[in-house]
User: Which sequence fits this backbone?
């Protein structure tokens, strides 16, 4: 079995065994979707959201597009990772960053580093152009805003859960000015000594034929294993009727995560069920967080479906590494 490094025991995380008739690397929770607009007052949709283990329970940061159709971040608590109590008001920060008003927030990732929880999300600069916002919390009560990591246009900030060669590491996807123009659509590596100043940017991977041909972007916080960093990412394909969002996986060098060891040619998850096919944006699966039990290697992937609801899918570290190696580009 591949060994999870620096992982946590999470025996109470959501889990279902692979159904007997399923031979795929990822399988869905039978009661999907787990969250919808019904879970927050005045919500239009509740989707791309992140959860973490916290003191034997779970905490989450949720993307809710409200009835004014402006996305903001909400926080919530759960004992089982499936049933959530989410606050009805978007959370506010304890501090302000001068010159950087908080005009919207979406697609949060939550990353624990040395007991502190960092929230990274797509934020609007003063003129509403998207880039990577950052904040931290120690208790999911008080949340402190940090400087934005990059200039617009950027999305899909994914922080690594420990320093690598004494630097914090973040992936991001410098991006489009609108929905039709993805720029080069690639994932980039950046590093920082202090989480304020980011540099030494390197290309990690670019779009590739098929489901990941239009653009790609990092997903959940990477899982550290003795075979490399296990990254789940999304890939986008253009069709005559719009875009479709899929998920794939990659294995990255432990000491230099800009180096891709393997990367899936086949997707690991695609829009298939009705709640993934039909919604505010049809045909989208968008993973943004995982829970991983270090003892068993079980992984629960939390993903937004059709920009409308949240679903869970399952796999294991061994299954995903094997699939990634055997189906690599
Ligand atoms: C991306 C982001 C995601 C969204 C996806 C599909 O650009 O905006 O929040 O899930 O598009 O619409």
Assistant:
């Amino acid at each position: 079995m591949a060994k999870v490094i620096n992982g946590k025991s999470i025996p109470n995380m959501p889990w279902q065994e692979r159904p007997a008739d399923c031979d795929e690397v990822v399988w869905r929770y039978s009661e999907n979707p787990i969250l919808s607009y019904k879970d927050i007052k005045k919500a239009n949709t509740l989707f791309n959201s992140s959860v973490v283990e916290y003191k034997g329970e779970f905490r989450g940061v949720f993307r809710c597009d409200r009835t004014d159709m402006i996305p903001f971040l909400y926080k919530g608590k759960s004992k089982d990772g499936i049933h959530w109590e989410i606050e009805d008001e978007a959370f506010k920060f304890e501090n302000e960053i001068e010159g950087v008003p908080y005009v919207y927030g979406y697609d949060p990732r939550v990353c624990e580093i040395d007991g502190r929880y960092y929230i990274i999300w797509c934020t609007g600069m003063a003129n509403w152009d998207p880039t990577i916002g950052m904040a931290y919390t120690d208790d999911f009560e008080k949340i402190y805003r940090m400087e934005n990591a990059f200039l617009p246009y950027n999305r899909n900030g994914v922080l690594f859960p420990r320093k690598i060669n004494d630097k914090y590491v973040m992936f991001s996807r410098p991006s489009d000015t609108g929905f039709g123009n993805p720029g080069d659509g690639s994932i980039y590596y950046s590093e920082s000594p202090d989480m304020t100043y980011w540099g030494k940017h390197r290309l990690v991977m670019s779009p590739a034929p098929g489901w990941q041909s239009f653009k790609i972007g990092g997903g959940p916080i990477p899982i550290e294993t003795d075979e490399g960093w296990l990254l789940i990412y999304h890939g986008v394909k253009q069709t005559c009727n719009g875009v479709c969002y899929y998920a794939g996986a990659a294995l990255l060098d432990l000491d230099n995560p800009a180096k891709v060891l393997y990367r899936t040619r086949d997707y690991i998850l695609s829009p298939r069920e009705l709640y993934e096919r039909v919604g505010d944006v049809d045909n989208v699966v968008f993973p943004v967080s995982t829970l991983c039990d270090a003892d068993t290697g079980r992984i629960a992937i939390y993903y937004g479906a059709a920009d409308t609801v949240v679903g869970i899918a399952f796999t294991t570290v061994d299954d995903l590494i094997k699939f990634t190696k055997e189906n690599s580009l």
